[in-house]
Amino acid sequence: MSKPQEVGLDGAIRLSRRIGDGDIKRGDTILEVRDLGVKFWVNGEWFDAADEVNYELKAGEVLAIVGESGSGKTQSSMSLIGLLPSNGRAVGSAKLKGTELIGLSGTRLREVRGNEIAVIFQEPMTALNPVYTVGFQIAETLRTHFVMAPAQAKARAIDLMRLVEIPDPEGSFDKFPHQLSGGQRQRIMIAQSLACDPKLLIADEPTTALDVTVQAEILKLMRELRERVDAAIILITHDMGVVADMADRIIVMKDGRVVEHGTSDQIFNDPQHPYTKALLAAVPHLGTTATDFAPALKVSLVREGDTPIPLGPGDAGATAALLMEDVTIEYPKQGRRPAFRAAKNINLRVDPGRVVGLVGESGSGKTTIGRAAVALLPVVEGTLHVAGRDITHATNADLYPFRRDVGIVFQDPGSSLNPRLPVGESIGEPLFLHEKLRGKELSDRVEALLDSVELPRAMRNRYPHELSGGQRQRIGIARALALEPKLLIADEPTSALDVSVQARVLQLFSDLQERYGFACLFISHDLAVVEMLSSQIAVMKDGVLVEVGPTPEIVNNPKHPYTQRLLSAVPVPDPAEQKKRRELRDAIIESQHLVS
Amino acid sequence: MTDERPNEEPQLPSEQGTPGIVPGEQLPEPSETTEDATGRGEGIGEAKEVEGLSQGQVVWRRFIRHKGAIFGVVTLGLVALLAISAMGIGPIPGWWLWQDPMKPLTQVNQGVPTLTLPTWLGGPGFEVGEHPFGQDNIGRDNFAAVMAGIKTSLLVMTVLGLTALVIGVTIGSLAGYYRGKLDTFLMRLTDLAITLPVIVLGAVLGRLIGGAPTKFGLPLEVGQWITANMPLLLGFALGMILWPSLARLVRAEFLSLREREFVDSARVAGASDWRIITKHILPNAIGVIIVNTTLLMSAAVVLETALSFLGFGINPPNVSLGALISMNQSAFQTRPWLFWWPGLFIILIALSINFIGDGLRDAFDPRTKRIPSKREMDKALSRISPANAQEVAS
């Protein structure tokens, strides 16, 4: 069988057949999706994961598919290249330049994958093979589809890495994925997907796993790339801010169906469907506290050069719920691995009944502080007081009464509940242990707690795996509040949740805070969420606090360059405003010469 | 270009799921329709299948779907039932004619098995006869011996499994939970136990137990008790040297489970170490424990056979499958049936337990998914969407 040969990149001969005449021009319709559906075979019947999806896509255009997890946005896109789980089937039609994609298999399908349609996956660490160098993985894609000598493929791979702004592309070619940062790995993924000059790029939540500042840089790169390559892009995301930054047109999906389809402008400024409206309203909006703010000349910086400034005297009448003075926290050494100093010289106070937000990137040490505050990690220097109790060097026995005063809500609701216990038992455990409640009394209290987090009482006999993420997080909150603690540590309680679920959980959280009046250290990477809830914000970077101040002060008048960068990086779900912010953001990224 | 908006569906939940707009005091009831546990993504199959079931029920469902495991359970059950009912248990006598496998009887048919195949299998017609498994050279009934041997082997296996389970889980969980010095000490102990050659040690222990009464001048009753309970003691002794593999697996499981957030949250709630180990970590490690104990037990059957064959495990008057093969080794040419039957049952037992272990492993593994066959799915698809099904087929 003779394959049509064709001259491709750098004069290399393309092994894989192209679809259509090869060249695409901006404005050509390249993808036509008609009545596309995805079905899963479950317990002897077909279950629709997506149904009646229709759209067309032109070269150079960005189509965003927005929806919550489980809305079918990923599955409907993955069905284009046959990447469904083995019990899934695609029905309907999707034509790439007139060639039907649904039902392709074998060689024909492999010629499409990578060659005509490329995918940028969500998690670059798991999408790259850890035992091969990143350069090899880009070259592999090239050599699969082209007749290419290794040296030629390497040269092309280095060109691609330069295109995605990897620092020192020649040197990075031989690096392994773990030697690169998260942002750089995602750049490699992008380079790999662009390798064969595909007609269509599917970006599946390309920035969700990244920190907000890194996300800003990747978005900047993708915006630049869409001007330079002619491929159409399908952007799958749940983040309205990212959509506002990138998309020309938007499809909103819910429960496997398209509920709204329109241009970016239409969707953001004139949404028709109630679900779209709800989705837009649910996005935490940065700058909500800004309205009546007069910039004060307050110094919120907490370091002078390298030396931390000690805390000023607090309110004399009240005992601080959490008081950290010059605290240094270490992860204890394990075997030959030396102790790791995750947070240094922390000065922080949380007053009773107040919510203090702690923001920072992953790895900045914010979770460390939260865990030290509930005595899960040892404090090696400084003093730590919780509700007037010194727990710096407390032993296990000393800690028992202290446990009544604190509660913690963990980030991952999937991992923080014992999978073998009914959730009612998980909630009741603190009561069982501290108030020695048994039988009827215990179950009454558990039911009251379920009421307070607005879950049906019958749910107490369910197991965690039967609950959704939002429900599990409510259970987590109920358990943390069981003993009505004076201090609650909320460690990214909503970052694993969908945006509309997050909005409801946050609402519940602030209601409960008002009702019970606990002090709270709210840890998050999302500035908008922190701004909504807290009266004070502490910003953390590389294990040290860089800025602490009242919320309006931090949001509107940030002093530290890192805080400024963090604030500018947050995408806002409004295309017009985002355009302004983007220019500011790009300027900051350029001026600070950052490539991560 | 499709800029027209698709018709909106009126039946979609409208105001109920609008977060952020609703004031706090009238938050919508978080009904299961808005926060549905069953997503539509990749995990959908799983989520639908386990709806409303506890973890145990989920495991049980997966287990009974495993054909090999069910075959194993049924076979093992039938073998055990046959052996126990034939030879009796404790004071209850069995139904078999010859209750003493060591008693010489008159030779029937020169010791050839009287069990004959039914006509449809090419035999002269099904008949059990007086000595279905044949007799040895002094006329002892092979059926009685094999049944008694099965009983012994099953007993050794169970005792060994339980002993290894208790020791392995205790040591593994302490080492994994506390880490540090205790872990180092216990794991070096485990390393030491692993280096011991099982067959040699089993032989020495077997001899010691058997020879203890005469050596230490213990009263006769003790000697008799030891002889009568030899299988029990052998199982116990073997369990004492076979626990290390289990201990290491349990430790590994504990090391990963103790870092999970639910353990932290139990600690924050004020749970003691004992409670965390028994209530929170152990139930989550149960899969590893059950599976590996099962596999250990199937290895135990073979090990007991090997030891007894070498003459170190079970000795007359006790009978085990290995001992039977050993006893009759000189008759291999003349009376091969004396090997067939014990051999057949050794294979049956070991194989069934292995299958059960495999089934349990799949049942406890959350990644196991039942994928329907391609043909079944194609057929089902053609019913609802003939056009696409044809494409797939072509």
3D architecture notes:
The complex is a heterodimer of chains A (596) and B (394). With 596 residues, chain A is of the alpha/beta class. Chain A has 2 domains: 9-282, Rossmann fold, CATH 3.40.50; 303-569, P-loop containing nucleotide triphosphate hydrolases (Rossmann fold, 3-Layer(aba) Sandwich). In chain A, 35% of the residues lie in helices and 24% in strands. Chain A has 21 helices and 24 strands. In chain A, the strands form 6 sheets. Chain A has a 6-stranded mixed β-sheet with strand order 7-9-10-4-11-12. A 6-stranded mixed β-sheet of chain A has the order 20-21-22-17-23-24, sandwiched between helices. In chain A, a hairpin with a 2-residue loop joins strand 23 (536-541) and strand 24 (544-550). In chain A, helix 7 packs parallel to helix 8 (212-228), helix 8 (212-228) packs across helix 20 and helix 14 (423-434) crosses helix 15 (439-452). The longest helix of chain A has 18 residues, at 499-516. Chain B is mostly helical. Chain B has one domain (57-102, 109-364): Orthogonal Bundle (MetI-like fold). In chain B, 62% of the residues lie in helices and 0% in strands. Chain B contains 15 helices and no strands. Chain B has helices at 44-49, 55-65, 67-87, 142-178, 180-195, 198-216, 220-228, 230-242, 244-257, 261-268, 273-309, 321-327, 337-364, 374-384, 386-393. In chain B, helix 4 (142-178) packs parallel to helix 8 and helix 12 runs antiparallel to helix 13 (337-364). Chain B is flat. In chain B, 40% of the residues are buried. Classes of the chains: A alpha/beta (596), B mainly alpha (394). The interface between A and B is large, with 98 and 71 residues.
